[in-house]
Amino acid sequence: MRKALLVSLTCWIMLAMPWALAAPEDVANDIAGRVTSPFCPGVTLHDCPSQAAADLRTRISAWAEAGWGRNRIMATLESEYGPQIRAVPPASGTGLVAWVLPVVVLAAGAGLALTLIRHWSAATRRARTGEAPEPDSLSLSLSERRRLDDELAAFKGR
Question: Which of 12, 39, 134, 157 is 20 to 30 A away from residue 140, measured at CA?
Answer without folding.
Answer: 157
